[in-house]
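User: tokens in, sequence out, please.
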């Protein structure tokens, strides 16, 4: 039977019946082979859909954080540069549409729901819709490849808060593992990097600088997770796959108060330093390894600010694409679903760090501002 859910929350799909499962708190338990999931929840950050949404959206993002209002208004201008519309929502819709087709062709046949942390469709509304639709036990795909407080633990806290708001009918939620070193993430990024390198004249390719970028986070947050380690592993795998052994990892998009230490160097500081060290540098390839789609931080911080700085310095900046809806990436999401549904011993991972865990430990990615934690 075909079931149509309001477009705000989901794309229409074929539903499956499900066994009754109890609501889980923030921590989650491993499923047995006999357990059945009856949905997939795509969990993301969210973004404004127009100029009137920008300030309310940023107030949601920054609630409880010590970020000066001047900085919030400065970031708002980044959104106004694109008429107040973040591309992340349309990109999530495109990813869900591609995943629909993948699941329709290869299974499993699960309805796909979508809920955000900071803007509509918000997680409490989505979980309420899921409960009304009879969903009892759902898998969750986070649109973040790495382990950190903001990219994993905070989403789990958001889900737990949404479950509490919905009440005892809210579905149990089990997240899929982090995928920073999954072949389905690394291989598409190798394709993206190779294409970017090929756009540089052949006689200059070997001398082009290669730099990977990711969203900066507070050093105190980085101390409590494996974010940096995982970023370096993914960067190494992608660079090696494209035949490059020399590269750097830098950061972008910091938003905290100036007195708070964040991961560095910033991409623009790196570009200035590279030019000062070698004024003859002609090309730089920038790979946003920390992002899975070309959303605002990529379009503004790299394609606008970074590109303008490179033009000023006479450097040809080439920006590699993100995975987006690359067919191999979409296939990877299905593989992660199948792996978790069957408790599969086949857990693909490249490099030396191995596959990530399914269930996060109680102290995984803990973060208290200004109070660094040891690595988990």
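Assistant: Sequence out:
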């Amino acid at each position: 039977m075909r079931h149509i859910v309001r477009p705000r929350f989901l794309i229409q799909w074929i539903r499956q019946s499900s066994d009754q499962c109890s609501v889980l708190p923030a921590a989650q338990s491993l499923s047995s082979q006999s357990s059945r999931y009856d949905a997939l929840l795509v969990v993301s950050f969210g973004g404004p859909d127009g100029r009137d949404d920008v300030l309310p959206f940023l107030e949601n993002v920054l609630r409880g954080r010590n970020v000066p209002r001047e900085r919030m208004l400065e970031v708002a201008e980044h959104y106004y540069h694109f008429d107040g519309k973040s591309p992340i929502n349309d990109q999530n819709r495109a990813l869900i549409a591609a995943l629909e087709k993948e699941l329709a062709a290869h299974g499993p046949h699960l309805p796909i729901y979508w809920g955000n942390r900071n803007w509509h469709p918000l997680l409490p509304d989505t979980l309420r819709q899921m409960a009304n639709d009879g969903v009892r036990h759902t898998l969750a795909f986070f649109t973040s490849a790495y382990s950190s407080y903001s990219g994993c633990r905070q989403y789990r806290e958001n889900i737990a808060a949404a479950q509490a708001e919905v009440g005892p009918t809210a579905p149990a939620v089990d997240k899929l593992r982090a995928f920073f070193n999954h072949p389905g993430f690394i291989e598409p990024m190798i394709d993206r990097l190779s294409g970017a390198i090929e756009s540089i004249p052949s006689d200059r390719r070997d001398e082009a600088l290669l730099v990977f970028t990711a969203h900066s986070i507070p050093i105190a947050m980085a101390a409590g997770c494996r974010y940096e380690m995982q970023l370096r592993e993914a960067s190494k795998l992608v660079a090696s796959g494209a035949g490059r052994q020399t590269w750097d990892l830098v950061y972008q998009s910091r938003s905290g108060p100036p007195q708070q230490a964040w991961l560095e160097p910033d991409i623009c500081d790196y570009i200035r330093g590279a030019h000062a060290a070698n004024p003859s540098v002609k090309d730089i390839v920038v790979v946003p390894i920390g992002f899975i789609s070309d959303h605002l931080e990529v379009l503004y911080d790299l394609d606008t600010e970074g590109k303008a700085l490179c033009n000023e310095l006479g450097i040809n900046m080439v920006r590699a694409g993100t995975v987006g809806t690359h067919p191999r990436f979409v296939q990877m999401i299905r593989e992660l679903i199948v792996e978790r549904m069957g408790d599969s011993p086949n857990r693909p991972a490249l490099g030396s760090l191995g596959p990530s865990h399914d269930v996060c430990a109680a102290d995984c990615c803990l973060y208290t501002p200004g109070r660094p934690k040891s690595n988990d």
